[in-house]
Amino acid sequence: MNTRASPVLQSQPLGPLWPTLDPFLFCAHHDDAYPAGNRAMGVQAVALEGRQMGSDFSRKDGFSMYHGEHVPGFPGHPHRGFETVTLVRKGLIDHADSLGAAARFGGGDVQWVTAGAGIMHSEMFPLLNTDAPNPLELFQIWLNLPARHKMVRPHFTMLWNERIPRLEHADAAGLRTTVTVVAGALDGAGAPLPPPPESWAAQADADVAIWTLRMEPGAHWTLPAARGQGTRRMLYWFVGEGLSIAGEPQGGHAALEVAADRALELVNTGGDTVECLLLQGRPIGEPVVQYGPFVMNTQQEIMQAMQDFRRTQFGGWPWDASDPVHGSAPRRFARHPGSAQDEVPQA
Question: Which residues form the Pirin C-terminal domain (predicted)?
Answer without folding.
Answer: 211-315
